[in-house]
Amino acid sequence: MSGLNVSLGYFITVVALGLSCRALLRRWPRLGFLSEWSASFVLTACLLEVQTVVEVGQWAGGLGADVSVTLLFAVLLIHGVACGDASGNPTLTLGRFLALEATVVPTLLAVAGQFLGAHVALQAALHYWSLELTDMHLIKSLMASSCSTSLQVSVLQGFLTEAVSALALHLAHLGLRRRSALLRVPLIAGLLTFLSQAASGYTSAYMNPSLAYGLTFHCPGFTWTEYATVYWLGPLTGMSTALLLYTGHIPRVFSRNLFYSQKTRFRVPKSGASGEPEDKKKQ
């Protein structure tokens, strides 16, 4: 249990740092895009530790699959509560841009902040593992330079897995966006956990370009182009498809609704050639 206690202390420290950054940013609204940096940092740093538990926890720390699944759901739930509107996910940010809910400059700054947050989280995790606080982290530190890639299938299969997973995620986001956070956050966390477990033998269903950059791009086995095709182009395809299916169009690209007709809410009374209602003519 000592390994689990160290991991819990790590999670608490990372979340506390993220909350501190968000509290400081409230004083400078113009730097609001940095909240995406904070959200990405917290998410990537925590999931790097969950990944450690999954890979070596069972035989180095006595931590079974039930522990890793519980940790994953808890991390996603706490991230959703603590980070609020900041998702740490470039596809969600670009989705708001395509839906005309954000402009170009804030979107670019937010996406840049998300990738920077993931990079800083990876460097922080590498330093944390190098401290070798437990046997689990000692082994992870030795494995860091030759880690196992999350992409366990071909590039085409990986692309389709990420696209379909992202399609489900973004449809859920669009359907729940006006719901209370008490309902929305647990449902999204549960869906993310389910998709991650269902795709564990394929791509792990990150559905998040910056998160995938922090968790698996540094692992050997595939080129950057192949990783980008699966973990960047796949989620972007799923997000665009979800927006198209949900709204009938992509507002930033074209305004015509391809799937759903806009029906009038009220019936217009029939009138004769003179413009008078039929009832008056009969009188």
Report on the structure:
- The structure is a single chain.
- The longest helix is centred in the first third of the chain and has 27 residues, at 34-60.
- Helix 1 packs antiparallel against helix 2 (34-60).
- The protein contains eleven helices and no strands.
- The N and C termini lie far apart (89 Å).
- The chain has a single domain, classed as Glycerol uptake facilitator protein.
- 67% of the residues lie in helices and 0% in strands.
- The protein is mainly α.
Task: Give a summary of the structure in a few sentences.
It is a multi-pass membrane protein. The chain crosses the membrane at residues 6-25, 37-54, 60-83, 104-129, 149-169, 181-207, 227-246. The protein is an all-alpha fold and 283 residues long.
List the helices and strands and how they pair.
Layout: H1 2-25, H2 34-60, H3 65-83, H4 90-98, H5 104-130, H6 135-143, H7 155-176, H8 181-198, H9 209-215, H10 224-247, H11 278-282
Helix pairs in contact: 1-2, 1-3, 2-3, 2-5, 2-6, 2-9, 3-8, 4-5, 4-10, 5-6, 5-9, 7-8, 7-10, 9-10
Distance between the termini: 89 Å
The Rg value, from CA coordinates, equals 23 Å
* CATH superfamily label: Glycerol uptake facilitator protein
What's the CATH class, please? Answer: Mainly Alpha
Enumerate the spans where pLDDT stays under 50 for 5 or more consecutive residues: none
What is the approximate shape?
globular
Give the averaged pLDDT, no decimals: 87
What is the count of DSSP helices, taking H or I runs of 4+ residues?
11
What's the CATH architecture? Answer: Up-down Bundle
CATH topology: Glycerol uptake facilitator protein
The major β-sheet equals:
none
- Helix proportion: 55-70%
String of helices and strands: HHHHHHHHHHH
Total number of domains: 1
| Fraction in beta strands | under 5%
Seen as an oligomer or otherwise, the chain set is: single chain
Counting helices, strands and paired strands, the structural category is mainly alpha
Please report the total strand number as a whole number: 0
